[in-house]
């Protein structure tokens, strides 16, 4: 797979589709304006029946044209802004809406521990902050998604089926796919498309509300044709709104398919191992549950998922076989049946979940931490990790003492860890064991914090127990 060529092609297609999406919104605004102008022209004194707005009428009423157009744009814009603000809490908001539970950094569950380790390795290799990690405990299908406005508030969620069915290499392929969404800005794009689609929906909802609360036919006869014109306008705007929403979702699905192809190509670039991603996709095709998600809220985030979560008219992902053939042109769909039999045999032999891989001993830590000092060299590595970077990230994580790993997962103990690292090279500590001082400082801080919490002292930063 030539993933660089694939990335260039999908980015070009994405730009074309986004431009088409913008044109669709403009077309909706023009159509709604035309309906409203028709009603206003027909309702003016002296008009006989339905009167279409011509150039003369538009030139004679510039204020009406401007106000009406700005009102329609304002409704779509404000509705989109509202929808975007409701999701402004980050990817965790989306994950929790689907029933996701954040994976604790202290978890002892081997599958969850493996998940955190893979995400942490990918974060180190890609040079981005560690995102929040969520688990959809009730979902047995193989799926995952990344959500958030930017890497700083991103979240990655995976289903229980992803943890129990995939091996480590396959899980890494899925996580790399989601990281590519983060690095390529797909999350921000998805949020904006969701907001704009909501704006189109609001146009239709306003028209439907007008029709619902419009006067009855008897009262309409008393008031003349004015109410009839309003009802006609509301009905037409309702149709325009839903037609615009239809084509908007159609284009959104096409954008999503394009970005999914880009994410597959980027995932192979990150891991330099196409077999992991390929194996995950094959198991989705072979599994009984596939990639389905049962939560009813999945419709709104269907375009964010690793694989289709529901059956819908607008396909948000390329066909599974197409994705596999893009990775491996020699793929044969008969492999689905072979893997299905293999998974069934494994379930019959043992019902136990895979165990987490053992953590290696602390060796060559200083060599692994030897990164380029030049800012320019480091910046070139961000979002473009190679095989050596992935291996180094994994070795760094595995080589850290468990005490330091745990300390780095919590904001409070991470501050103590940072200060201890800063003091480790201080002249005052040269005569002692720097590593011992580091571990001792972290352990002391954790003991103090535990004691303060146990005694319910409600300590502040300036208190005697140094909480």
How would you describe this structure to a colleague?
- This protein has 19 helices and four strands.
- It is mainly alpha-helical.
- Helices cover 64% and strands 3% of the residues.
- Strands 1-2-4-3 form a four-stranded mixed beta sheet, sandwiched between helices.
- The protein has two domains: 1-357, no CATH class; 403-467, no CATH class.
- The protein has helices at 3-43, 55-60, 62-86, 91-97, 110-126, 160-165, 168-183, 186-212, 217-222, 226-271, 274-286, 320-327, 335-349, 365-368, 375-381, 387-399, 402-407, 411-424, 434-454, and strands at residues 101-102, 132-136, 144-147, 155-159.
- Helix 3 crosses helix 8.
Quick structural gist:
Helix content is 64%, strand content 3%.
Topology summary:
Elements: H1 3-43, H2 55-60, H3 62-86, H4 91-97, E1 101-102, H5 110-126, E2 132-136, E3 144-147, E4 155-159, H6 160-165, H7 168-183, H8 186-212, H9 217-222, H10 226-271, H11 274-286, H12 320-327, H13 335-349, H14 365-368, H15 375-381, H16 387-399, H17 402-407, H18 411-424, H19 434-454
Parallel strand pairs: 2-4
Antiparallel strand pairs: 1-2, 3-4
């Amino acid at each position: 797979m030539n993933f660089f060529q694939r990335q260039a092609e999908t980015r070009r297609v994405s730009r074309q589709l986004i431009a088409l999406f913008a044109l669709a919104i403009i077309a909706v605004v023009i159509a709604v304006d035309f309906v409203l102008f028709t009603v206003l022209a027909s309702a003016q004194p002296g008009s006989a029946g339905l009167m279409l707005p011509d150039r003369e009428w538009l030139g004679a009423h510039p204020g009406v044209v401007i106000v009406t157009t700005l009102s329609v744009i304002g409704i779509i814009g404000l509705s989109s802004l509202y929808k975007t603000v409701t999701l402004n809490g980050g990817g965790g908001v989306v994950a929790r809406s689907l029933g996701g539970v954040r994976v604790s950094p202290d978890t002892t569950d081997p599958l969850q521990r493996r998940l955190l380790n893979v995400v942490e390795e990918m974060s180190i290799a890609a040079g981005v902050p560690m995102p929040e990690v969520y688990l959809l405990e009730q979902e047995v299908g193989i799926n995952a998604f990344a959500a958030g406005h930017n890497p700083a508030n991103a979240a990655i969620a995976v289903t229980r089926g992803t943890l129990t069915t995939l091996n480590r290499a396959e899980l890494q392929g899925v996580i790399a796919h989601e990281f590519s969404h983060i690095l390529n800005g797909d999350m921000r794009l998805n949020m904006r498309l969701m907001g704009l689609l909501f704006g189109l929906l609001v146009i239709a909802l306003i028209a439907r509300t007008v029709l619902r609360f419009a006067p009855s036919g008897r009262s309409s006869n008393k008031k003349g044709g004015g109410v009839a014109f309003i009802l006609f306008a509301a009905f037409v705007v309702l149709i325009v709104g839903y037609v615009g929403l239809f084509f908007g979702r159609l284009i959104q699905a096409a954008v999503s398919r394009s970005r999914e192809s880009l994410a597959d190509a980027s995932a192979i670039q990150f891991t330099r191992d196409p077999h992991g991603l390929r194996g995950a996709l094959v198991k989705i095709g072979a599994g009984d549950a596939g990639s389905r998600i049962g939560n009813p809220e999945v419709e709104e985030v269907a375009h964010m998922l690793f694989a289709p979560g529901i059956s819908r008219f607008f396909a948000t992902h390329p066909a599974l076989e197409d994705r596999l053939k893009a990775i491996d042109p020699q793929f044969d769909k008969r492999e689905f049946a072979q893997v299905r039999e293999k998974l069934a045999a494994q379930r019959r032999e043992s019902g136990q979940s895979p165990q987490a891989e053992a953590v290696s001993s602390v060796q060559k830590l200083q060599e692994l931490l030897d990164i380029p000092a030049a800012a320019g060299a480091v910046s070139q590595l961000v979002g473009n990790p190679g095989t050596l970077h992935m291996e180094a990230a994994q070795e760094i994580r595995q080589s850290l003492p468990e005490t330091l790993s745990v300390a780095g997962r919590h904001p409070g103990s991470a501050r103590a860890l940072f200060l201890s690292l800063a003091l480790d090279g201080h002249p005052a500590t040269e005569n002692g064991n720097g590593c011992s001082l580091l571990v001792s400082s972290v352990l002391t801080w954790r003991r103090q914090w535990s004691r303060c919490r146990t005694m319910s002292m409600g300590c502040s930063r300036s208190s005697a127990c140094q909480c």
